[in-house]
Amino acid sequence: MRVAIAGAGAVGRSIAGELLENGHEILLIDKAPTAISVERVPQAEWLLADACEITSLDEAALQRCNVVIAATGDDKVNLVVSLLAKTEYGVPRVVARVNNPKNEWLFNESWGVDVAVSTPRLMSALVEEAVSVGDLVRLLRFSHGDANLVELTLPPESALAGTTVGDVAWPEDTSLVTIIRGTRVLTPSREDSLEAGDELLFVAAQAREEQLEDLLSVRRDTSTTP
């Protein structure tokens, strides 16, 4: 897979290193001569150019890329790169870095972004995930379909503890994708049980998040009043 990364700073080089180890073909683009450090990622291609310029992207042969990653420290640059990659070159997958969480609302399909990764939000989400039980934590936002990757650790008082996946009336536009139980990662089937302490990962529409949290967190009172 050919991947172009706009931004050859610490973040871009780190991404490039990981992808190279997985056997992908990498092109790093940066307009700052000081950022061109071929010796740091020698297996990658390097291009000294402004990724916001069509001529630069022509030189990079962006139309041959399967993925473009806009990883600069400037949100405006990342949006322009994403839009050009999608609209001018038809890149199938565009991933963009969000530096300022206040700009996150812009990183959607209107700007050519398929996946937006907000480092500050991700770090705060990981902190919340480590200390929260019974609270829904948003880990990642997908631009298409207004869907998010969310996590919830099932509390002991949840009404769903002890039930099976197939017995739960899940909200519309939600999908349970993984159950993490201790050191095990389970691909859920209808017969799998839900246990207190399970970390549940969902892809869910944002409009369904509150409904999903209520379903998982609250033990319903089944007692009757005489």
From TrEMBL:
Domain RCK C-terminal, chain residue ranges per copy: 137-218
Bilayer-crossing regions: none
UniProt KW NAD keyword: yes
Pfam families in the record: TrkA_C (PF02080), TrkA_N (PF02254)
GO molecular function: potassium ion transmembrane transporter activity
Domain RCK N-terminal: 1-117
A single GO cellular-component term on record: plasma membrane
Entry-linked SUPFAM superfamilies: NAD(P)-binding Rossmann-fold domains, TrkA C-terminal domain-like
Keywords: Ion transport, NAD, Potassium, Potassium transport, Transport
Name assigned to this protein: Trk system potassium uptake protein TrkA
